[in-house]
């Protein structure tokens, strides 16, 4: 099945994203329906955003669910066959979605397709090591970054392997939930494509208001290490995850003591990396949340 303007929905998960969300929404054509899942459960944000934009519906999550679970909640609240999942700090070009729709007409089968980041220094996809490709036509990849990806919901449902239609593993709070989904789909011999004529601008790390930057930075460091361990444990086994993660833990331990008296911020960063790793190896959930007070 190919994509049309009538059977694709936009999903955006937000958390204290008031500063960037308007740029994102304004870059999306007005005839597309947008579902926002707000993880900060901000009633004022919901009222304002739905008042300004007639094509936007905002769902307030019961808790700060993170990216994967937030996207799952959004996906359960749409009825279209395709969902374009984007982060609030993504800006589309005028033809981004049209190029995706056009390309889908020439693809026999796909589970995920994605636009390409216009920052060539930070590609939003991973290739097989020996893979050659033509960057003027859609090309297969083994994973795409989660900040901009189109899910073929109808195809994912046909696979009948996702419990309760949770396509993203909700054990991840942030980081690698997209890699996990892509890896699962590759194992099932599903196709993932990048559409090089469809371009997006990812602001990178700007999804949350900068006034919360310190708390978010600590959360990112905790979850990046936790998610890497969980991902490797899930796909390669506990001891492989321990082997891959232990050097980072030792490096963080050394740097923690080095910065202990001379740089509080860096000391706290390496402390959170250590804590993320320690909680992962003893099997604790990704419970850490940024301590944000308005």
* Poorly predicted segments: none
Mean pLDDT: 93
Task: Estimate the global geometry from the Cα principal axes.
Answer: globular
Report the biggest beta sheet as strand number plus sense, adding barrel if it closes: 9 strands, mixed
Structure summary, number of beta strands: 11
Helix content: 40-55%
The CATH C-level name of the largest domain is Alpha Beta
Pattern of helices and strands: EHEHEHEEHEEEEEHHEHHH
Class from helix and strand fractions: alpha/beta
CATH topology of the largest domain: Spore Coat Polysaccharide Biosynthesis Protein SpsA, Chain A
Domain count, please report it: 2
Beta-strand percent range: 15-25%
From the alpha carbons, calculate the radius of gyration and give it in angstroms: 19 Å
Number of helices: 9
* CATH level-4 homologous superfamily of the largest domain: Spore Coat Polysaccharide Biosynthesis Protein SpsA, Chain A
Return the CATH architecture of the largest domain. Alpha-Beta Complex
What is the subunit arrangement here?
single chain
For the record, give the distance between the C-alpha atoms at the N and C termini, rounded to a whole number. Answer: 46 Å
Helix and strand arrangement:
Blueprint: E1 8-14, H1 18-26, E2 34-38, H2 43-52, E3 56-60, H3 66-75, E4 82-86, E5 90-92, H4 96-104, E6 112-117, E7 125-126, E8 139-140, E9 143-144, E10 148-152, H5 153-159, H6 177-187, E11 192-202, H7 213-236, H8 238-259, H9 264-281
Parallel strand pairs: 1-2, 1-4, 2-3, 6-11
Antiparallel strand pairs: 4-10, 5-11, 6-10, 7-9, 8-11
Helix pairs in contact: 7-8, 7-9, 8-9
